[in-house]
Amino acid sequence: MKKFLLLTTGLFVFSCATKEEVDLIVTNANIYTVDADFSKASSMAIKDGKFVAVGETGEISKKYNAQENLDAQGRTIVPGLIDAHCHFYGLGQNQQVVDLVGTQSFDEVLERVVAFQKERQSNFIQGRGWDQNDWEVKEFPTKDKLDELFPDTPVALRRIDGHALLVNQKALDMAGITADTETEGGEIVKENGEPTGILVDNPMGLIGAIVPPSTRAQKIQALKDAEEISLDYGLTTVNDAGLSRDIIELIDSLQQAGELSIRVYAMVANYPENLDYFLDKGIIKTEGLNVRSVKVYGDGALGSRGAALRAPYSDKPGHFGAMVTPVDQIEALAQRIAASDYQMNTHAIGDSANIVVLRAYDKALEGKTDRRWKVEHAQIITPSDFDYFEKGIIPSVQPTHATSDMYWAGDRLGPERVQGAYAYKDLLEKAGLVALGTDFPVEQVNPFLTFYAAVARQDVEQYPEGGFQMENALSREETLKGMTLWAAYSNFEEDEKGSIEPGKFADFVVLSDDIMTIPSEEIPNVTAKHVFLGGVQKK
After folding, report:
1. Which helix (H) or strand (E) holds 201?
2. Pairing of the two strands 284-285 and 289-297
3. In degrees rounded to 5, what are phi and psi of residue 361?
4. How far is CA 440 from the centre of its chain?
5. Which residue from 13, 94, 160, 534 has the least number of CB within 10 angstroms?
6. Tens-digit pLDDT profile for residues 462-507
7. 141 close to 132: Cβ distance less than 8 angstroms
C-alpha cells in the first residue's frame, strides 16, 4: 500500500512538472474569440503578454499551470475593444476646458462658462461640446452675451463636432478677424455685414494661432486622463484621427517609460511639416504605437452645415457646404501618399466630399494592392458611388452619429437624400468589412453605445420605435467584428490583435453581461468589469 501511495505521488509530481508554466489562466468564461469561425471557448492561457492557448477549461487546466488564475464565473469575455476613429488626445484636452456637452440652451452654456472662470481664472477661456440642435432655438448663438460677460478675456467655445467655434470680440480682435477677412474652406458667419462670433472650419485656425500653447505637463496629463477614461470602458486600442509630431513622440516616450499603456494607432495630421517628416521616415511600429497613416479633412460636418453636398441643403437653400481641403489638393495628397507606405484616411461627410475622395483614391491606387485606405465617416453617399468600396477602400464609420443626427439629418438632407446616409449595411456589403468607432469626444466614449446604435439604430431613449432606417442595421456578430478584428485589419494589425487567438496580444475585456444575447434595449447598460492589456489587468 505504501509503495502504491509513493508511486501515485510520484506520478502526480511528474504530471505537474510536465505542465507548461504560464502567467495567467482564465477559466469558466463565456469567450467570444472573434476568430475566423467566430468560435467560442471557456478558458485561455497567457504568457509574456500574449495568448498561448484558447480552448475548454478542462483542456487548458490539464496542460498549463499559472502563477495567477482568474475564475470568470461564467462572464462574457471579448477581445480588447478598438475605437477605429476617435480623438484620444482631444478627449484629454477636454478635461482641462469647460465641458459644454449636454447643454440644453445657450444660457446654460453661459452659466457653465461663468462657473468655470470663477474657479479657474483663466486668461484664455476655452470650452467644447455645445450643440444648437439640442436647444429649443436651433440656431447658432452669437457673441453678444459673451462680450458683455467677458469684455477683456478671450473666449473660444468649440461646437461638439469640432467644426464650428463661437468666440467673443476680444478673441476676434486678437486674431485680427474683421468683416473684411477672407477665408477659403469654411465661413465667418456674419449678420448685417459683421462677424457674429461663429467660425466654421478653416477660419477656426486663425483663433487656434492665438491660443496659448499647452505645457508639456498639461499634454502629459491630457494623455493620462484620456487613457484612464478609455480603459475604463474596455478600449485597449484607440485610433487617434489627427496628431501632430510632438504628441506622437510624447505618446511614444510615455509608452517606453511605462507611463502610458493603451495602444495607439496614430493618424498623422495633414500639415506640411508632419508629412515631410513622417513620409520620409516611413512606418513607425512598436507594440504600443503604430504610425503609418495620414488624416486628411475633406469637408466639414453636417450639424454645422459644413459638409459638402452635391445639391443645396434642404433647410438652407443655395448653401452647399464646402470642401475644407480643395479638390486639387486632395488629388495631389492621394498621389503623394500612394507613393509612400502610408495609408490615407480622409474625413468625408457630404456626398460631394465622398465622391471627390473616392475618385482620388481610385486614381492614386491604380495598380496597387492591399493599401487599405479609409474613408472616415462615409456619411452621405450617392447610391451609384457605393461601388467604389468594392475596390479595397475601407469605410470607417461611427454608429452613434446616426442616432445623434437622426433628429435633424432629414431636415438638412431631405427625405430622398437621407436614405443614402448612415448606410452601414450597404457599406459592409460593398467593402466586406466596416471599422467602427465613436469619434469621441464628438460622441460619448462608451463603446457599448456604439454597439447598441449599430444593431438597434436607436438612442438610449429607444427612439425611434423600430429603429432608424433599420435596413442598414448591423448584426451583433458584424458589430463585434467591426469593433475588434475588422478595426485591427483596417490598421494592418489583424495578426496581433482583434481576436482571442494564440500568438496575439492578450488584450481582452470581461463584460458585465453577454452583449451577444441580452435584449437589445439592455445593451447600453453593459459595462467593462475587468480590462486586460497584454495580460495585465488595468481595471
Report:
1. strand 194-201
2. antiparallel
3. -60, -50
4. 6
5. 13
6. 999 999 999 999 999 999 999 999 999 999 999 999 999 999 999 9
7. yes
Say how far apart CA 276 and CA 1 lie, in whole Å: 80
Contact 10, 20 (CB under 8 A): no
Cβ proximity of 303 and 159 under 8 Å: yes
The answer to whether the beta carbons of residues 304 and 310 sit under 8 Å apart is: no
| CB 487 within 8 Å of CB 499 | no
Q: How far apart are the first and last CA of the chain?
A: 51
* C-alpha cell of residue 123: 486668461
- Count the Cβ atoms, other than its own, within 10 Å of residue 67: 10
Residue 301's SS3 state is: coil
Q: How far apart are CA 112 and CA 92, in angstroms?
A: 19
Tens digit of each residue's pLDDT (9 = 90 or more) over 373-407: 999 999 999 999 999 999 999 999 999 999 999 99
For 241-284, give the DSSP string: EEE-HHHHHHHHHHHHTTS--SEEEEEEES-HHHHHHHHHH--E
Helices 216-232, 245-256: axis angle to 10 degrees equals: 70
Selection from 128, 130, 120, 129 nearest residue 153 by Cα: 120
244, 269 in Cβ contact below 8 A? yes
The cell numbers describing 480, all together, are: 463585434
213 C-beta neighbours (distance < 10 Å), count: 7
User: Residue 4: which pLDDT band, with cuts at 50, 70 and 90?
Assistant: very low
User: Are the C-beta atoms of residues 279 and 254 closer than 8 Å to each other?
Assistant: no
What is the helix (H) or strand (E) element at residue 430, kind and residue range? Answer: helix 424-431
pLDDT for the residue numbered 50: 98
Q: 395 and 378 in contact (C-beta within 8 Å)?
A: yes
Q: What is the pLDDT of residues 286-343, one digit of tens each?
A: 999 999 999 999 999 999 999 999 999 999 999 999 999 999 999 999 999 999 999 9
The Cα 488–Cα 505 span in angstroms is 12
Q: What is the DSSP letter of 421?
A: B
Helix-helix angle 351-364:327-338, to 10 degrees? 30
Distances (CA, A) of 408 to 42, 230, 400, 403, 479: 45, 29, 14, 10, 25
Q: Are 473 and 275 in contact (CB under 8 A)?
A: no
User: Minimum mean pLDDT among 120-124, 429-433, 445-449: which range?
Assistant: 120-124
Say what the pLDDT of residue 18 is: 85
Question: What was the pLDDT predicted at 353?
Answer: 98
Mean pLDDT lowest among 7-11, 295-299, 329-333, 354-358: 7-11
| Site of grid cell 452645415 | 305
Q: State the pLDDT at residue 530.
A: 98
CB 233 within 8 A of CB 447: yes
DSSP state of 525: G
Q: Which residue has the cell 502563477?
A: 67
How many Cβ atoms from other residues are within 10 Å of residue 276's Cβ?
A: 11
Q: Check residue 12 and give its pLDDT.
A: 42
Residue 394: what pLDDT? 98
Distance CA 431, CA 474 (A): 14
